Here is the input.
Amino acid sequence: MNVFEIMDKKGHEQILFCRNDSIGLKCIIAIHDTTLGPALGGCRMWPYETEEEALIDACRLARGMTYKAAAAGLNLGGGKAVIIGDPKKQKSEALFRAFGRFVDSLNGRYITAEDVGTSVAEMEWVRMETRFVTGLSRALGGGGDPSPFTALGVYSGMKACVEEVFGNDSLKGLKVLVQGLGHVGYHLCKHLHRENVQLYVSDIDQDKKEKVVRDFKAEAVTPEKIFGFEMDIFAPCALGAILNDESIPQLKAKIVAGSANNQLALRMDKCFLKEISCMLLIMSLTREGLSTLLMNCVNTI
Here is the structure.
């Protein structure tokens, strides 16, 4: 694993490797570009199989944040942090406070927030050690969880795509499959349920899947059956690189509209989508979640 080669390839400014053996913290903070302002990006906690996998994910996500912020017209750069660990088993106040101290050592070059595997609660632990964190509760002067706003952005973008493809923006009766039922996925399902779609859901977390099935009368689909499933809209709201040269030929949707970062494994994969006449919603342009985090930055830093 040649770290400088990875940085050179996509133009990353800085990568910080962090560890605290006494509490089991292994973390990577990637800063892609700070031309427009400090790097903003969430902290993801995930049980990566290798350190290289974690590094590549952090770098991909940081780069994506640079372009999201720029496209949304925000004075922010792109960064991301990943903590290597199981969010169901390894979260602790000590771990996130140690992470907060590493964030603070960057002196504002990187501002963290919640992401996959983390929540407002963990960001409040981080806040004990640094002011360079957003997505905090209203009690601490923040705007709370930005996920509902991100979900609203996806939902609004989805309706725009439906109008383009089907001639009107009504989702009623359409088959929509939401993959990933975390913070954003759950709130997206709430919007879709209210519009009476035929809702199908998938997640590797059985508890999350059962909750959405129960709350919104959805039908569960196993992860291995997603791409062969007949649907009108596919909403990937989990991890990235879900659309690639293997999955796209199997895709049976006319629209892909979800909140997952870096949905295309490679830039060339958009050509495969065009070949199967599938429209891809560019989430960089649905700015609600990012704007909420920016306002939180203004209020709390």
Summary: The domain at 147-285 is CATH 3.40.50.720 (Rossmann fold). The mean pLDDT is 88. The radius of gyration is 19 Å.
